[in-house]
Amino acid sequence: MNVSRQLVAPLSRRRFAGLLGAGFAAAALPPSSPAAAEPTVGPDLGTVIRLSSNENPYGPSPAVYDALRAAFGRAWRYPDEAEQALVEDLARLHGVAPDHVLLGNGSGEILQLAAAAFTGPGRPAVLADPAFEAVARYARTKGAEVVRVPLTADHRHDLEKMLTVTRFTGLLYVCNPNNPTGTVTSGLGDAPPRLPSGAVLLVDEAYHHYAAEGAAGDGYTSALPLLARHPNLLVTRTFSKIFGLAGLRLGYAVARPETIDRLRYHQTLDAVNGQAIAAARAALQDTGHLESCRRRNQEIRTWVAAELAARGFTSLPSQANFLMTDLRRDVQPVIDALRTRGVEVGRRFPALPTYLRVTVGTRPQMESFLRALAAVLAT
Fold first, then answer.
1. What is the 3-state secondary structure (H, E, C) of 174-226?
2. Per residue in 252-272, pLDDT tens?
3. H or E segment and range at residue 255
4. Is the preceding omega at residue 177 within 30 degrees of 0, hence cis?
5. What 3-state DSSP class applies to 233?
6. Residues 180 and 320 sit within 8 Å (Cβ to Cβ)
7. What's the rounded Cα separation, in Å, for the pair 280 and 101?
8. pTM for the complete prediction?
9. By the 8 A CB rule, do 110 and 104 touch?
């Protein structure tokens, strides 16, 4: 049997309609065949299906578990040598010198360091609305103004307007692909916007590995190749998403050495633990696992979007591991009702109050999501 074709087999209108009826439990989808079954990841975390945090439901590479077991034998040592080894791995991967790379306790720490280094009174943080909000939170703690610029009509960053809202920008934050919309902002890989003097452009590429570059990626290109020509560019990546290491907390920055030094000035010593470093080095080597996760995510994302479209619900063109779908009603009651049925989805975003964000999980998880959604909408 062709597993790929089975993975994206459509949920028929009749079967979906059956779920809307009083007896939708009896109309539940048949279980996946053993050939298409997804691996069990980790211990039983309860009956709640969590589709709210954009985690990789397939977990890390099997090689990561071996690396973690070996790393425990070195738990008594500070991870200085291991940290340098990972920095050198990443430098080779991105074609830069090691002094262009800084590890962080998740890419969230890198965002916090950037806010500490580049924002403050008279140095605002400028970001899209909606976008990942960590930078805004950290900038406020520095006494900085936070300027939000609505997305364009096609739900992308309005870079031109973001640059004109203030002449004293400290930090211009671009999440690409964007969280929560999954959309991409094209052009960053060709030429970044011209920044005000002293400003820093931070491009958050947490979902880079899920995006298809070039024409297939709706114009997406990484900003990393621009580092050689643009000194005020800072790019962040994470091991929390496609690499499946969210619980270990590891991310990194790539930038010019002078920018890295300004970030490091605000960083706690030994912020990254040895187990996370060992896991990351192993994860980088298993490109087959990464590609498998990317492929399955794309197939299931396409399938779920099609099922929702068949019921008249339009999803934004996502290049990430989540979908944002317009339910044409305030989504907070839907979110609450889904939770009572054991399915957690993303929170309500005030800028897009009728859009529901759902992480793309495994096929069985998304079948459960569709059943729960059908039941909620029926009531």
1. EECCCCCCCCCCCCCCCCCCCCCCCCEEEEECCCHHHCCCHHHHCCCCCCHHH
2. 999 999 999 999 999 999 899
3. strand 251-255
4. yes
5. strand
6. no
7. 14
8. 0.86
9. yes
